[in-house]
Amino acid sequence: MKQTIYLMVLTLLISQCSSQTGFPKQFQAILNVTALQQYPLPSLGFQYLLYDYTNLRVRFDIKGWQSKQNETYMVQYKPKGAEANTPASEGYTMFNCNPDYPERTKNNCWYRTNPMKDAGPFPITWFGDILSLREIQPWFPLPSNLINKGEEWIPEIQGYAVRYDSPEICDLRKSGIGPVPCLSYFEAPNRPVKTIEAHVGRGAYDYDDLLTTVYLSFTNGIPSEAEHLFDLPDKWPGYCGNANTGFNVDPSRTFVVTPDGQDHFKLTLQTPPVYAPSDQVKVEFKVQPNYFYNGTRCAEFSPVIFDKTNWKTPQQINISFADYGCCSYQITATGGGYDWYYITPSIVVYACDGKAGDACKGKITCGL
Question: What does the alpha-carbon distance between residue 346 and residue 301 come to, in Å, rounded to a whole number?
């Protein structure tokens, strides 16, 4: 009888020592992320992280790679201040405050709605094949079949942690590392310490990777005094740069105008206007001479106004002949949050003799 009780107690102790607590729904941490391969810029390095699954929001602070200045990323679900019936009011939005890159930014912040192409120090399971963040998920759900490998010394925290390995093995042959557990998880008595995720490169353009995240410090929960760290600028839809802005040009080609004929295309916005500084977007076309497109005024355009009712309705833009040459025109916009955007789109116009919209004849001042 005593032997039976002893075995039951021993089994219970072993079971307790073999289990993991895992990650809570809310925590603060300072972490360091390293990898064999280079992920998008916000993914690697030392980061201050606030994770709040309860309220569907995450904040991480990093040092930028270009100017080496501190910048803050935040992901929030239906953030306060979003204009009604806009993409930001209906789902997840990522903010970048004090951005280190790109240099052009509005009021030192920008925002982008889903899909978000800026990654972060998030578990790989948060991402799909195109590395677009879809939603905030439980931070790092641990599989139930991890194997207790005993304690290991973790030099980054100068302490011991219990190591748990997945039974699945990933053979990192391309990198020369060889077989390793697909997942290793390290836990101290009161907190997670480290995760190692292995990825086997498959195909000619897919490489092995070993993503290591060390939690240099870890605190359960988010205290009330940390709430201000999730604050956004007042009236941020108009205050911050709108990284969703952009234009759809159809057809996508070089346009040709002649003294006897016009060309045209259709234009739509990629995202609706926001209420500040106005609810209208005025689109114009500014010539950008350079060494190749050397014309100074090849064509004349009719500007177009978009608002909340017609932003995704194709508007025809007529192009009229002004002078011979070839020109590159920058598509510019003002109002409705379109005063700022990442990439300035452009179109090319050839002004020549020939058939409008089709081809040039005779001498051409730049290549076709």
Answer: 13
At residue 76, what is the residue type?
Answer: Q
**pLDDT at 46 exceeding the cut of 80:** yes
Distance between CA atoms of 293 and 325, rounded to whole angstroms? 8
| Contact (Cβ atoms closer than 8 angstroms) between residue 98 and residue 69 | yes
* 3-class secondary-structure state, position 219: strand
pLDDT(285) > 60: yes
Nearest residue to 213 via CA among 94, 89, 35: 35
Per-residue confidence (pLDDT) for residue 97, from 0 to 100: 94
pLDDT band of 11, cuts 50, 70, 90: very low
CA-CA distance, 60 to 49, in Å (whole number)?
Answer: 4
- Got the DSSP string for 73-137? EEEEES-TTPPTTSHHHHSEEEEEES-SSSS--BTTEEEEESSB----S--GGGB-TT--B----
* Per-residue confidence (pLDDT) for residue 123, from 0 to 100: 84
Entry pTM: 0.82
Separation of CA 273 from chain center = 21
> Which CB contacts under 8 angstroms, 24+ apart, belong to 138-146?
138/23, 138/25, 138/53, 139/23, 139/27, 139/51, 139/53, 140/22, 140/23, 140/185, 140/192, 140/195, 141/22, 142/20, 142/22, 142/185, 143/183, 146/20, 146/183, 146/185
Q: How many CB atoms lie within 10 A of CB 331?
A: 19
How far apart CA 312 and CA 261 sit, in angstroms, is: 28
- Residue 299 near residue 236 (C-beta atoms within 8 A): no
For residues 110 and 94, the answer to whether their CB atoms sit within 8 Å is: no
